[in-house]
Write a structure and sequence with these properties.
Blueprint lengths: L5 E5 L4 H13 L3 E8 L8 H8 L5 E5 L1 H14 L16 H15 L3 E3 L8 H12 L4 E3 L10 H10 L15 E4 L4 E4 L29 E8 L2 E5 L2 E2 L2 H14 L4 E7 L5 E7 L1 H17 L2 H20 L5 H13 L5 E8 L2 E8 L8 H4 L12 H23 L1
Parallel strand pairs: 1-2, 1-4, 2-3, 4-5
Antiparallel strand pairs: 6-7, 7-12, 8-9, 8-13, 9-10, 11-12, 13-14
């Protein structure tokens, strides 16, 4: 432990990371640098500065990373129409590589020997943080207190804080029984009654959205403008990536969109039940597939669909900085050069319905060919006969063989 002179800690200012600061100082006899990121979690991050200062921290990093988070992580992920295990939009997973990157960058800036995080030994986040860190700086040392100390519950953490005079803000009012994680893409809920996969979530658990049955009875229409696969404007108003996601979260939540209740397979081997609210991401996924439906070549679209499950696993499991993810991203981004145009959506009581899509410059939809009316010779229907017979040849050969053997 004596070889660690300085460590950069991913610091929220809450109970866990406040205890970690003191624990690092005592167990490793090292200097601690704190790093607090604003990625749209909806809570003030600046109070973390005073808390860190009260614990004797001299180097304190507090950064607004919302635009970088959406532009460099969320948007690239949605170009691939990414969904893990058919449902999860990876709201927690996609935030971890950005935090890992900044931990490494700050370690370099401050001359730190190690980084530290507050992820537990049962979850995916420890894997994501550390795989990212090692990919960016192979020789970095990682300290994961939850895998080392004997503090195993909130009560033991509180006792440690009391014994070491660690200032812990005791919020008044009812404390949420759930373990929650939030950023601009989503908010997640785990623990308490959710540990029983048969138990329905309580109505007052949800924070970002109204229940679909309580949503307005009037549909909300929105139009999204796409350029190179990314949303650049809503209802004709140009917006930055973070502004886009903020607005989609707002209108989606108001219309009961984006709630999810799943049991997922964690990379560490266990099944875990979680609930998520991803209103903006739910809208983005539907809209992106709609604009691709008229601008993307059939086989390019199908290739993306084939690759997406693997791409989603790479993100979920923490391999954002891996060679294979970077290679897949290059392929995905190449397909997005023609994904330009507009999508019109109807939001109504938990549903996102595509009601229009167009692209003046890149549409592959030809009404003269697709029409049920006279196509003026654009498509010779007689050609379909030979096409069908050629594709049926192997089926006919197999059927004949089976008939002869019987």
């Amino acid at each position: 432990m004596s070889e660690i002179k300085k460590v950069v800690l991913a610091y929220s200012g809450g109970l866990d990371t406040s205890v970690i600061v003191k624990w690092l100082q005592e167990e490793y006899q090292c200097e601690v640098v704190t790093f607090t990121a604003d990625i749209g979690q909806g809570e003030e991050v600046e109070p973390a500065r005073a808390k860190a200062q009260a614990m004797g921290i001299e180097e304190i990093y507090i950064e607004d990373l919302r635009e970088e988070f959406v532009a460099e992580y969320v948007y690239p992920m949605f170009r691939a129409n990414t969904v893990y295990e058919g449902e999860y939009l990876l709201g927690t997973s996609i935030a971890r590589p950005l935090i890992a990157k900044r931990l490494i960058e700050i370690a370099r800036e401050t001359g730190a020997d190690a980084i530290s995080h507050g992820a537990t030994g049962k979850g995916n986040d420890q894997v994501r943080f550390e795989l990212g860190a090692y990919a960016l700086q192979p020789g970095i040392k990682v300290i994961a207190p939850w895998r080392e100390w004997d503090l195993t519950s909130r009560d033991t953490l509180m006792k440690y804080a009391e014994d070491h005079n660690i200032p812990i803000e005791m919020k008044r009012g009812k404390k949420s029984p759930y373990s929650m994680d939030a950023n601009l893409l989503h908010i997640s809920y785990e623990g308490d009654i959710l540990e029983d996969p048969w138990a329905e979530p309580e109505d007052d658990m949800w924070r970002w959205s109204v229940a679909p049955e309580q949503a307005p009875d009037t549909p909300r229409y929105i139009e999204l403008d796409y350029k190179l696969g990314d949303i650049v404007a809503i209802d004709g108003q140009e917006m930055s990536p973070a502004q886009v996601l903020e607005l989609l979260n707002k209108v989606g939540g108001e219309n009961g969109i984006g709630r999810l209740d799943i049991v997922e397979n964690r990379y560490v081997g266990m099944k875990a039940r979680g609930c998520y609210e991803t209103p903006g991401g739910t809208i983005m996924l539907k809209a992106h597939r709609a604009i691709e439906s008229i601008t993307l070549d059939r086989e390019a679209a199908h290739l993306k669909d084939d690759l997406m499950p693997r791409y989603s696993r790479l993100i979920y499991n923490g391999y954002w900085w891996s060679p294979e993810r970077l290679a897949l991203q290059a392929l995905i981004d190449e397909t997005q050069k023609c994904v330009n145009g507009q999508v019109r959506l109807k939001l109504y009581r938990g549903n996102v319905t595509v009601v229009g899509r167009q692209s003046e410059s890149d549409s592959l939809f030809d009404p003269e060919i697709a029409t049920f009316e006279d196509d003026a010779g654009a498509y010779d229907q007689k050609d379909a006969e030979g096409f069908i017979k050629l594709n049926a040849l192997r089926l006919r050969v197999a059927a004949k063989k089976n008939a002869d053997s019987n």
